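User: I'm new to structure prediction. If I give you an amino acid sequence, what do you actually give back? Let's try with this one:
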Amino acid sequence: MANSISDKLKIKAKFTLLTLNAPANFKKGLLGLSTGVKITDAGAAYNQVHWFVMNKAQMEKEMSKVMKLVKP
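Assistant: Good question. You get back a string of structure tokens that encode the predicted 3D arrangement of the chain. For your 72 residues, that looks like this:
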């Protein structure tokens, strides 16, 4: 059973996470990350996108931009 947030998000070794609007404590909350995991807020090479929004209006405003970042 997944115990940590990183386990629940299925973050694997050597993954690169693209974060958008991440809260200041986001990295701190990802205890027990696998070896070589990188967290960035820019770039074209990543395995997961973690997008944080404050409300529906922000989500609707940024949706088209973020959906272009999601890989199949």
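You can read the tokens as a compact description of the fold. Here is one thing that stands out. The radius of gyration is 13 Å.
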